[in-house]
Each structure stands twice: as structure tokens, then as C-alpha cells.
Amino acid sequence: MRNYKLAMIQMEVKGGQPELNLTHATERIKEASENGARIAILPEALDFGWCHTSARDHASAIPGGASFETLSRSAKENSIFVCAGIVERDGDRLYNAAVIIDPEGKLLIKHRKLNELSFAHDLYDQGDRLNVVHTELGTLGLLICADANASEYTLSKSLGYMGADIILSPSAWAVPPDHNNETDPYGGTWRNAYEPVCKIFKAWFVGVSNVGTVDEGEWTGWNCIGCSLAFNHKGEEILQGPYGVTADTILYIDVELQKRPARGTNWNWQSTIPEPCPERQ
């Protein structure tokens, strides 16, 4: 299947309220399936909220834990692929993780965030690998938020070399409370990160952010504002979600995958790659 509908679930996430957030996520997954989506992508750390310390006591395993099993059931009940960011407990370690689940509820791939912002290292341990998964929807690559703008976009490029047809990025994009989107439109960092990778590797790139106020951690009082982004295999921006702390919505795009260059192709590394932008945006 090379052409299909993809749902970008730009949902509100309330810090420290996993049951409420997961209920909201499953409602949105059901809605996406009913509207014909084959895959639904949800934000980073959608269960506890990014950097919310309640995860220290309540996060659970992947697979087997409460957050994963809730999403797994939802994928199976609605016969849809689900990509979502959730917090993972593994022994005495805590990870900012993301998963791709198939329509049977099976875990296909798990990613642990690599390029976490410095202050978040007090809460999350660092991942140590990247991977892709081959599905009927193409080869899916998975990373999380700031992984996409690691130095020279190394992590995204690595997924391109691994054959990703589409790179999925659960995210939590936040701005200070005084941010003015009219004079300083949000999204430049991610455009700079997504566009060149799409052009070089003929891959799609989809980043989905939550909305809502950050109520714990170094960014307390900041606002997650959506602005979810999708780029096609030509490096063209095909959609940006609405901006705002209350911009809870589902966005739909039609994915049309192209035949990728043969294995062993010498990728054009002479393409113009913008300089990495400041990590805040």
C-alpha cells in the first residue's frame, strides 16, 4: 500500500494526568480510524507530559505497562497503526520513548530519545539506538522531537540511510508565555530540519506536537502550541497545524510514497544543509 491517509493527532496533554490523557488519545485514535486513516501519530510523552516528574513513580514498561497496553488495545480495536510518545520504566531507568504499534496491537518498534535537552537529563535516561520497521505502509522510521535537529541532522539522515520512506516524530513544541506568533511565526527550526532530509532521501517527514501549558520543570509556564508539520518526499511543506495552547485537533494528509533509489545509491551529500538552529524552537 503506497497511498493512504495519515492522521496527525495534535492533542492536549495535561501534566501528571495519564489516565485522562490516554482516554483522550484513544478517543482521537477511534475518530481517526473512523475517518479512514491507516496510521495515527500522537505527541511526545502524551501520558504524563514532557518532563513531568510524576512519571518517576508511575511510568511503566514497554510493552506490558499501562500506557502501552492502552494504546495497543486502541490500535487493535480500531484496526489502525499507532505511533505515540510515552514514558517508559525499565528497572531503575526512565526513558522518553516512542512506539509504533500495528493494527493487531503488536509492538513493531520502540525508540528512546537520543537528543534530549540538557535539563531533561535529570529525569530521562538516554537512548542508544535507531531503527526502522518495514510495513505495508512503507518503511517507517521513528525518532522524537529534538532528535530531528541533532547536529547536522545526523539522526534523521541515519534513518534515511536505513531506508525510511516516512520519518515519524512525536514532539512537544513549546514557546515562552510572551511568544508572539504574528511577529515570530513558529516552525522555522523544524522546517530547516525536515526539508533537506526529505530532499536528500526522497522521504516524508511528519512531526506532531501536543498543545497545553507546561506546569512542571524548567519550562513551567511555557505553552505547547501544536503547529504540527508534514513534508513530502520532495521537501515540500504540505501542512502545518494551527498554533495555540488550545489548538486540539486532528489533521489529515494523504501520503503518496515514491519508489526510492536503489540500495547502494550514492546519496547527494552536496545538497545545501542549513546550519542547526537554537534548540529552544
Describe the model.
Residues 264-281 have low confidence and may be disordered. Strand 6 (132-135) and strand 7 form a beta hairpin. The longest helix is centred in the N-terminal third of the chain and has 17 residues, at 18-34. The chain has one domain: 4-Layer Sandwich (Nitrilase/N-carbamoyl-D-aminoacid amidohydrolase), CATH 3.60.110.10. The chain has five helices and 15 strands. With 281 residues, the chain is of the alpha/beta class.
| Mean pLDDT metric | 93
Query: What's the CATH topology name?
Result: Nitrilase/N-carbamoyl-D-aminoacid amidohydrolase
Report the uncertain regions: 264-281
Order of strands side by side in the largest beta sheet? 5-4-3-2-1-15
Largest sheet: 6 strands, mixed
Per CATH, the architecture is 4-Layer Sandwich
Q: Give the helix tally.
A: 5
Q: CATH-wise, what's the superfamily?
A: Carbon-nitrogen hydrolase
Total strand segments:
15
Backbone structural class: alpha/beta
Count structural domains. 1
Query: Can you identify the CATH class?
Result: Alpha Beta
> Helical percent range?
10-25%
SSE run: EHEHHEEEEEHEEHEEEEEE
Q: Proportion of β residues?
A: 25-35%
Distance between the termini: 35 Å
Radius of gyration: 17 Å
What gross morphology would you assign? globular
